[in-house]
Structures are given as C-alpha cells and as structure tokens.
Specification:
The protein is of the alpha+beta class and 143 residues long. It folds into two domains: 42 residues, no CATH class; 96 residues, Glutaredoxin, CATH 3.40.30. It is 35% helix and 24% strand. The protein is built from four helices and ten strands, in the order αββββββαβαβββα. The radius of gyration is 20 Å and the shape is globular.
C-alpha cells in the first residue's frame, strides 16, 4: 500500500514544480498560470525585493530626473514612493512586471531586485532615505 502512496505523491508533485507565468491580456487584465498563454508575451516571475545594503553607482542610459522601477507587491517600493510624495520629490514610476519599457530599462540598468531608483546619472539599488536625499540634492545643485 505504501508504494502506491509514494507513486501518487510523486505524480502529483511533478505539475507543482512548474514555473509561474504572468501576462496581461488585451483588455489589461493580469493572468497567472503554470503554463504560458498561446499568443501572449510572458514573464516568468523571479524578482525579489532588494534586501542587501543600498548600492549606488553610475546609471548608464538612465532617464533624467528621478525614476523608480517597481512592482506592485514590493513593500520597499511603496515606502520609497511614500517618502518621495511626503518630501515633494517629483518622480516617474515604471512597473517592471506590467510595462515593457519598465522591464527593458530595468534589465539595462542591471536590476535583479526592486526597487531600482535612478537620480539623473546615479543608480540606487534598494532604498535608503538619507542616501537618496544626498543624491537628489547633489543632482539638483548640478542643474
């Protein structure tokens, strides 16, 4: 009897090991599935919230001003955007899972976790309010 249970457990575990796909249909509805859609562009979800210490470096090809590359589910992204609003920092936001432009720029910037924030030609991986304000004030003084 036990070999049958083990065999059943193995058979049911195989489909559970498949990846998760996310795509947006023509009406703007988001779908999740264990298999890609027939005729839609898909992204296999592998992003995480950036948890390491904040890293600041040059951002080749960054947009001017402040831009934040986010996902809807990222708590650090939400905190950064709330900080920007509270401190009157104008910013653009690109969701890297919902917009093709955001996904392309995120990859070009070397993003592997969210948020990625650009301030002019500087890039911040993660978010630290003090480091951000230093970057922002420095960028404003150069204008």
């Amino acid at each position: 009897m036990k070999p049958c249970l083990i065999l059943l457990a193995v058979l049911f575990a195989v489909p559970a090991s498949a990846g998760v796909y996310k795509w947006t249909d023509a009406q703007g509805r988001v779908h999740y599935s264990d298999s890609p859609p027939a005729a839609a562009r898909t992204t296999q979800i592998k992003l995480q919230t950036y948890t390491g210490p904040v890293q600041v470096s040059q951002a080749v090809g960054a947009d001017s001003g402040v831009t934040i590359y986010t996902t809807e589910w990222c708590g650090v992204c939400q905190r950064a955007k709330a900080f920007f609003r509270q401190n009157g920092v104008p910013f653009r936001e690109w969701d890297v899972e919902k917009t093709e432009y955001g996904a392309i720029k995120f990859r070009q910037l070397g993003g592997s976790g969210v948020p990625v924030i650009t301030v002019g030609s500087e890039k911040m991986m993660g978010f630290d309010a003090n480091r951000f304000m230093s970057l922002w004030k420095s960028a404003q003084s150069r204008q």
